[in-house]
């Protein structure tokens, strides 16, 4: 669960919506990060669909994570209704696409993306495939790309997991295309997120 400072920043990003594109979250779970983003968007007069992608099917670690937050969910429970209930308290026009990312991006009706929060797989091949499908809709000089588990690899490394390097995909992506992104804010110690502005059109390597 990301901390209050990250939620405050998401709200601020929402408030900064300029009307040039849609907002989306990829990897939404129960809506803890979608809600503050939507609160800011509503303040800014957001009037487009909010796109939400997730499989919304509880796995064992999500059951434990929810329990630690005082919420009871069961293994394989469909979580989409909980997500929708949470976000609908803020904004109605949510297009919630349930299923496996990146296959579910097929349902995306292409529109420029102004705000893209990404909190889904951090490993290849899913991360790279997903990003290659999203970035062509980004608006140079406008789009904010939030990588909500950018520093997750560090936590994994410190916990002694041997596979920590597999979680470096978001970092490698930003480094590979560092001429196209500038860092806006990062929260390495609280929440592990980093937010980037997409500055110029990407030429895929
Ligand atoms: C860390 S949680 C998101 C947390 C949420 N952003 C928040 O802060 O409350 C990651 C989410 O990504 C989803 N997810 C991970 N891999 C996925 C995939 N390949 N397809 C669809 N959803 C996926 C999981 O179901 C989970 O809900």
What topology does this entry show?
Elements: H1 4-15, E1 22-26, H2 34-43, E2 50-54, H3 60-68, H4 80-88, E3 94-98, E4 113-118, H5 126-134, E5 144-147, H6 152-158, H7 169-176, E6 181-187, E7 193-198
Parallel strand pairs: 1-2, 1-4, 2-3, 4-5
Antiparallel strand pairs: 5-7, 6-7
Helix pairs in contact: 1-2
The structure holds S-adenosylmethionine (SAM).
Description:
With 205 residues, this protein is α/β, with parallel strands linked by helices. The protein has a single domain, classed as Rossmann fold, CATH 3.40.50. It is 31% helix and 19% strand. It has seven helices and seven strands. The protein has helices spanning 4-15, 34-43, 60-68, 80-88, 126-134, 152-158, 169-176; strands at 22-26, 50-54, 94-98, 113-118, 144-147, 181-187, 193-198. Helix 1 (4-15) packs parallel to helix 2 (34-43). The longest helix has 12 residues, at 4-15. The mean pLDDT is 96. S-adenosylmethionine is lined by residues 2, 27-30, 32-33, 54-55, 100-101, 119-121, 126, 148.
Keyphrases for this structure?
205 residues, alpha/beta, Rossmann fold, 7 helices, binds S-adenosylmethionine
Q: What's the number of structural domains? A: 1
Q: Mean pLDDT score, rounded?
A: 96
Distance between the termini: 34 Å
Q: Which regions are unreliable across 5 or more consecutive residues at pLDDT < 50? A: none
Range of strand content: 15-25%
- Tally of alpha and pi helices: 7
Q: What would you give as the CATH superfamily?
A: Vaccinia Virus protein VP39
- Bulk shape: globular
């Amino acid at each position: 669960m990301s901390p209050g400072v990250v939620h405050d920043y998401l709200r601020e990003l929402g408030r900064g919506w300029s009307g040039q594109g849609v907002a989306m979250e990829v990897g939404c779970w129960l809506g803890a990060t979608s809600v503050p983003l939507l609160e800011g968007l509503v303040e800014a007069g957001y009037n487009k669909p909010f796109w939400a992608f997730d499989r919304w099917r509880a796995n064992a670690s999500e059951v434990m994570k929810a329990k630690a937050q005082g919420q009871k969910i069961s293994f394989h429970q469909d979580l989409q209704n909980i997500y929708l209930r949470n976000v609908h308290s803020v904004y109605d026009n949510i297009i919630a696409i349930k299923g496996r990312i990146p296959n579910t991006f097929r349902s995306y009706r292409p529109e420029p993306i102004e705000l893209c929060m990404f909190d889904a797989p951090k490993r290849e091949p899913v991360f790279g495939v997903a990003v290659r499908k999203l970035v062509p809709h980004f608006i140079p000089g406008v789009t904010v790309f939030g990588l909500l588990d950018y520093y997750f690899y560090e936590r994994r490394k410190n916990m002694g997991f041997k596979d920590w390097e597999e979680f470096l995909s978001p970092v490698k992506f930003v480094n590979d295309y560092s001429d196209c992104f500038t860092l806006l804010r990062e929260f390495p110690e609280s929440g592990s997120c980093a937010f980037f502005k997409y500055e110029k059109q990407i030429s895929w390597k």
